[in-house]
Predict the 3D structure of the following.
Amino acid sequence: MKVVILAGGFGTRISEESQLIPKPMIEIGGKPILWHIMKEYSHFGHKEFIICAGYKQHIIKEYFADYTLHNSDVTFNFQGENRIKVHNNFAEDWKVTVVDTGYDTLTGGRVKKIQPYIGDDENFLLTYGDGVSDVNISALIKFHKAHGKICTLTAVKPDSRFGYLDFDGDKVLAFREKSKEDVGYINAGYMVLNSKVFDYIDGNVPFEQEPMKKLTQDGEVMAFRHEGFWQCMDTLRDKMKLEELWKNNPAWKVWA
């Protein structure tokens, strides 16, 4: 199944890093978060990727163009005809299509622009290029196929950095950490869609607004509840958290 990754936004809230590179190219443990996402899908056997690029899209293209070079030992011989020799040639068994979906295009517009790469009545996977998870992709797809609707999203309960105060009137009774039981579910991406979804996208719109609202009104959206790990990289603080987790407990690293 093809994997579509939204990777075209600027990433305003992490501009300390994204002013130089696209947000999905910001590194965790020396690798772009985009690579981490792709490694998870690849682990479950999904190795054909369509990257919806936009802001500084050439950086994403250059990364994959030089992927083998970056991950192998190389001899540069300036004296002979065969000037470059790659040792221990390493490359992922991926097929990657990078599509320039536009600088100012919104998420729905980006999804619409990759329609030519998706077949009629074909299911495909869609996620955001700034969040990692240990969601079981195989179970997610099985759930999607069982209900037969157009859209499945992965629903998670995010952690909060803020605690709660318990009151009796104006009197503070206790300080406590906010738990997942205190918060509702959000759309974490990791979606499965049928190509019929393109009929719901009209113009350059946020995918999460009119298209999803119309799908919901038509009863075409189902939620796959994930109680495991999920973390987005929305701010520099999130990046630092992911860096620390990568060193000690990378819960999203489901691959060997």
About this structure: The two ends are 21 Å apart (CA to CA).
